[in-house]
Amino acid sequence: MKPPDSNPADVFDPLRPRLLRIAYRMLGIVAEAEDVVQEAYLRWHQTNRDVVRDAEAVLVRTVTRLCLDVLKSARVRREEYVGTWLPEPIIETVEGDDLTLTLMMALERLSPLERAAFLLHDVFGMDFEQVAKAIDRAPAACRQLASRARDHVQEARPRFPVTEARGHELASAFHAASRSGDTQALQALLAQDAILYADGGGKAKAVLNPIYGREKLVRFFEGVWRIPAVGSAQLVHEGTIDGLPAYVTLDPDGMLQTTAFAIEDGRIVALYVTRNPDKLKGIRRAVVGESS
């Protein structure tokens, strides 16, 4: 006699964290990832689960295809975005997941199918037969998609990475130098070809275009030092954001900012600054204790 149909949440809830990670890595926005996973749950609830042999495979496939649909419209929205678009910063440590913010930015240059094939195979450990079912392509095509994506991502990986402890030391040193006006210290911390990316989304003050080169960055921070509020910003968190050493500051007017660092061979090669308040709601809850 066949057992009665179980509560759909009994199977779904243990898989929810993995599904959320897949959706976030695909989309870069937590709220969109949560919406996708919730839609996947509703579809799972309506599925004839008695005939499902591999619930995880079905749910990953559902989430992946929903993400691909979201990415179609997201491309248009990001083209219209004010200034530089950065993924939503999250404080997260997942063992074995080395997909940093820098690498997520590299994924932005891929097609949605390349991104899906790479993430499912290289990051989440699915074989190409499973990937093929998830994105509705032949296994051979999935191998090609993942290979092209891997080439792009490999270019973004640091050739001479530093230890986690050293990364946090450099982040702390940068915070001190950027607040004290120590030009020489800044120059010593930055690589010659360092880049700053800032995301204000048109809702917070931020440079619209990336700033390239150590000399231009030093001049930029010399201008920032003349803003009274900068020196009085409160450091509220130091740690890791999307796999990179980072810190979070709170301005006197309540504006939150995350600053994350890509580091190679002992120098900062990229700075990622997020000030768009829509992308900082989760950070605010985590480090300030406020809902928004």
UniProtKB/TrEMBL annotation:
It comes from the Bacteria. GO terms for biological process: DNA-templated transcription initiation. Residues 103-152 form the RNA polymerase sigma factor 70 region 4 type domain. InterPro entries: ECF_Sigma-70_Domain, NTF2-like_dom_sf, RNA_pol_sigma-70_dom, RNA_pol_sigma70_r2, RNA_pol_sigma70_r4_t2, RNA_pol_sigma_r2, RNA_pol_sigma_r3/r4-like, WH-like_DNA-bd_sf. Pfam families: Sigma70_r2, Sigma70_r4_2. GO terms for molecular function: DNA binding; sigma factor activity. Residues 13-75 form the RNA polymerase sigma-70 region domain. Gene3D superfamilies: 1.10.1740.10, 3.10.450.50, Winged helix-like DNA-binding domain superfamily/Winged helix DNA-binding domain (1.10.10.10). Signal peptide: none annotated. Interacts transiently with the RNA polymerase catalytic core formed by RpoA, RpoB, RpoC and RpoZ (2 alpha, 1 beta, 1 beta' and 1 omega subunit) to form the RNA polymerase holoenzyme that can initiate transcription. This is RNA polymerase sigma factor SigJ. The lineage of its organism: Bacteria, Pseudomonadati, Myxococcota, Myxococcia, Myxococcales.
